[in-house]
Design a protein that fits this description.
7-stranded parallel β-sheet; two-stranded parallel sheet; alpha/beta; globular
Length: about 300
């Protein structure tokens, strides 16, 4: 199959592309800078977001995957950074849709990255794909992002919004930042410890994406989270026990808010999110236990 991927140099993109190449698929990766990247028979790097659409003669594309967007973990959410988080997602999605408009033969599927932050936060509510959506900055950003990507359906393209939870990987993302203090013997509870952590192993991200590609009845929002969310205090203990490091320190929520501003909600607040669509369609998770997931990474 031929894949067109935007944002393929990030955490999820790299893991997915490695799997696609191993399975002998062909990947066309849209990138801002292709100067240090070498094409191979299975991957072709194509510059984009340079004020004009790529002048590239694409073959028939089977699946388009949009993972592009400025990182949520890049620093304190100033007014400027919040604008960048939103506009980077909308701009890259619109540019990708413009490329799709040019293709004489449309792909059968668009997989668009999204986030469980669309539901807002709660310590008592459970969320699935049918739940009401939130109204904070992150929820509003995700709603606008999904609405932008949804225009692909006007071309009869099956469109899936991949609402990612906290991704467990040792190669990037938020999880290594949670682990790092424990390596320095400075680990401990973040916030009150009662906030839910809806997580997913990077191998299940890739596995679920491939599962959706092969199950054409799945469309719309899909939660990418383990069936077993845990409390932050439980996650702290799992990391502490596995690394054999103390879990002594505690950073209260007010201090995190002072240090991180609005971005602190990524740590101090959470949501219990279930992957209802994946489970009902028969996806079998490789990792449902946090201890086993951490053991596979460290």
């Amino acid at each position: 199959m031929n894949f067109l991927i935007a944002g393929g140099t990030g955490l999820v993109g790299q893991a997915l592309i490695n799997k696609l190449i191993a399975d002998n698929h062909i990947v066309y990766c849209l990138t801002r800078n292709d100067s240090n990247k070498n094409d191979t028979p299975n991957i072709h790097y194509i510059p984009w977001l340079n004020n004009e659409l790529p002048a590239y003669n694409f073959p028939n594309i089977d699946v388009v995957i949009n993972l592009a967007g400025y990182s949520l973990n890049s620093g304190r959410w100033t007014k400027k950074r919040k604008q960048l988080i939103l506009t980077s997602r909308l701009h890259s999605t619109r540019e990708l849709l413009a490329i799709l408009n040019r293709l004489p033969n449309k792909p059968s599927l668009l997989l668009n990255a999204s986030a469980i932050g669309v539901y807002g936060t709660s310590e008592s509510q459970y969320f699935n794909e049918s739940s009401p959506l939130g109204d904070d900055f992150l929820a509003d950003t995700v709603k606008k992002w999904e609405a932008c990507a949804e225009t692909a359906t006007t071309h009869s393209i099956r469109t899936v919004f991949c609402r990612f939870g906290i991704i467990l990987s040792n190669k990037g993302g938020a999880f290594p930042k949670l682990v790092f203090p424990y390596r320095l013997y400075m680990g401990g509870r973040l916030g009150n410890g009662n906030q839910w952590v809806s997580w997913i192993h990077i191998e299940d991200i890739v596995g679920a994406l491939l599962f959706i590609i092969n199950h054409p009845t799945i469309e719309g929002p899909v939660n990418f989270t383990s069936p077993q969310p845990i409390k932050m205090s439980q996650l702290d203990r799992c990391i502490s026990n596995h690394l054999r490091r103390p879990n002594w320190f505690s950073i209260p929520e007010p201090l995190l808010k002072i240090a991180l501003g609005e971005m602190s909600l990524l740590i101090t607040e959470g949501q219990y999110v279930t992957p209802t669509v994946l489970l009902e369609n028969g996806y079998i998770f490789q990792y449902t236990d946090m201890k086993e997931a951490i053991r596979s990474l460290y």
